[in-house]
Amino acid sequence: MGERAAKERRRRRNGRRKRERKKNKKKSREEKFSSSSPLINPPQENRDKTHRRTPTQPLLDPTTPCEETLKVR
To answer: According to the UniProt entry, which residue ranges have a biased composition of type Basic residues (predicted)?
Structure first.
């Protein structure tokens, strides 16, 4: 009963823990989807706001030389 046995035990225990965690995660996920909770499916208008990209500033026209753009600013 040396170091190797202890390592083996630890490895097995970790494996079991990992499997149980995975199972619990799956279970909680199923529970979430079975219950019609408002958090999972947010109202459409809110979702649109969160995912819309902020409008980027229009790119400077590449045909104008640098001096002109500097003057404008």
So the answer is: 7-27
Tokens of 11: 């490895």
Question: Is residue 24 a part of any domain in this protein?
Answer: yes
Q: Tell me the one-letter amino acid at 14.
A: N
Q: Is 39 helix (H, G, I), strand (E, B) or coil?
A: coil
Residue 57 lies in a domain: no
Asked whether the beta carbons of 69 and 60 are under 8 A apart, the reply is yes
CA dihedral 62, 64, 68, 72 (to 10 degrees): -60
Unique residue bearing structure tokens 């149980």: 20
Q: Which residues contact 40 (CB under 8 A, 6 or more apart)?
A: 32, 33
The percentage of the chain sitting over the pLDDT mark of 70, rounded to a whole number, equals 40
- Closest CA relative to residue 72, chosen from 55, 63, 60: 60
23 compared with 41, residue with greater pLDDT:
23
Q: Is the predicted pLDDT of residue 7 greater than 80, yes or no? A: yes
